[in-house]
TrEMBL record:
Residues 78-93 have a biased composition (Low complexity). One of its GO terms (molecular function) is transcription corepressor activity. It comes from Aspergillus mulundensis. This is Heat shock factor binding protein 1-domain-containing protein. GO terms for cellular component: cytosol; nucleus.
């Protein structure tokens, strides 16, 4: 029975090293959280950059389509008609 009493202090001593393990676990969680936050910030920055580029390209495409439409309307108004002489007519097969 005395061996059980001897194991109790050893068991208590065994729990003491777990305190640094909890601190290490907390540090690891904090580092992991910081890494995830950094990754999310990087992804947000990349998403913003890609979105800005896409909207810029959409605006450029819309501007070019407006210019094309205006030039076609100007050609029709001038009496030349649409530029059908240079555009091939699709044939039904």
């Amino acid at each position: 029975m005395s061996s059980n009493n001897d194991s109790t202090p050893t068991g208590t001593t065994a729990l003491s090293p777990s305190a640094p393990t909890q601190t290490q676990s907390t540090d690891a969680q904090a580092q992991f959280t910081a890494a995830v936050d950094d990754l999310l910030d990087q992804l947000q920055h990349k998403f913003d950059t890609v979105s800005r580029e896409m909207f810029g390209k959409f605006d450029d495409m819309a501007r070019r389509l407006d210019e094309l439409e205006a030039s076609l309307n100007a050609a029709e108004d001038a009496g030349a008609g649409p530029a059908t002489a240079t555009t091939p007519t699709p044939t039904a097969k």
